[in-house]
Amino acid sequence: MASHRRPKQPSRARVTVLTTAAAAAVALSAQAANAAPSAKPSKDEVKSKVDKLYQEAEQATEKYNGAKEKQQKLQKEISTIQDNVARGQEELNKLRDGLGSMAAGQYRSGGIDPSVQLFLSSNPDDYLDKASTLDQLSSQQVEALKKIQDKQRELAQERAEATAKLKDLAATRTELGKKKKEVQAKLAEAQKLLNSLTAKEKAALAAEQNRASRASARDVLGANSAASGRAGAAYSAAQSKIGSPYVYGASGPSSFDCSGLTSWAYAQAGVSIPRTSEAQANIGTRIYSQSQLQVGDLVFFYGDLHHVGLYAGNGQVLHAPHTGAVVRYESIGNMPFQFGVRV
Q1: Active-site pick, 4, 306, 307, 322
Q2: Per residue in 104-113, pLDDT tens?
Q3: What is the mean pLDDT of residues 207-218?
Q4: How far apart are CA 113 and CA 136, in angstroms?
Q5: Annotated catalytic residue 322
Q6: Ranges of H-type helices in 130-241
């Protein structure tokens, strides 16, 4: 028989809770709908963030350059050692052949000397350590054995050195890959920020930079600061590259990063200087007063010395600034100057 009981009504407390929850949900929805969208960063804010990212990218670039230079140096050293080992092995083989010929001669004349026979089947290091056996050898045999012993030790040392350098090379290649990824990540982030600007904002930023570059160029032309000697030749070489694009890890002749430009410029003057800005800071004579700088001096910026350029006179620097820019003049006051170096 069907039940005719009246359905149970929800309690007043439960209705109140449900009503309150529903009201809260509606209020939150309304708040979300009426909330103002996050403000788009201004042109100047974007520029500030991008400049910071470019600085960080350049810091990583100089570490990348250092790892790349170390890799190239290790590869040359390893190649030299391997060539030495190959030549040493040939020499060792000849020495052993000579001792073998000596033994063959003894055999033909009545049998191999037991001491030589012992050597041919054992390690010469162990053999020579047994002083008693030396009395059984001729002076010629002793000399031949010692030469073999010396050559074996030399080869063992060179092989150990090559093994250590190969491990160092592998670690350096890993470091190189990490720094490359770090640079690329910073540049990609900077580009994303720049892409958020309107065409009008991008044009305004470019115009500001062009005005600053023209003003710096006028200051350089009005300085009448003649450069001389090798510093002058390096400066003239760098001037010939004005307008060349900045490319991280590049050292000319068509594109440059900051230390790539300075090292290339001095190379054109017949002067070899290190590849990285940090290493370049440790050559020549340091000059801490801007008033004492001369055209062609290296000038270093930021506490970790990750940026370098060439002094252009009248408070201006000729440098490769950062990705997206070209080799150009800029006021030395636009960056935190640390000191100059006269090469």
Answers
A1: 307
A2: 555 454 554 5
A3: 90
A4: 8
A5: no
A6: 131-134, 139-195, 199-221, 229-239
Distance between CA atoms of residues 78 and 168, nearest Å: 11
CB atoms within 10 A of CB 22: 10
Instruction: Give catalytic status of residue 319 as yes or no.
Output: yes
> Any idea which residue has 């290649």 for tokens?
173
Q: What pTM does this model have?
A: 0.71
pLDDT band at 291 (very low <50, low <70, confident <90, very high): very high
Nearest to 299 by CA among 340, 262, 243: 340
Name the strands in the sheet holding 316-319, side by side, starting at the edge strand that comes first in the sequence.
285-287, 337-342, 298-301, 307-313, 316-319, 328-331
What is residue 136's predicted lDDT score, i.e. its pLDDT? 53
Residue 292 tokens read as 């004492």
Beta bridge partners of 341: 286, 298
Asked whether the beta carbons of 135 and 61 are under 8 A apart, the reply is no
Sequence-ordered list of residues with C-beta below 8 angstroms from that of 199, at least 6 positions apart, any chain: none
Q: How far is CA 337 from the centre of its chain?
A: 22
How far is it, in rounded angstroms, from Cα 173 to Cα 69? 11
pLDDT digits (tens, 9 = 90+) for 159-173: 999 999 999 999 999
Residue 4 among the catalytic residues: no
Give the β-pairing of 298-301 and 337-342: antiparallel
In the block, tokens 């890799």 appear at: 71
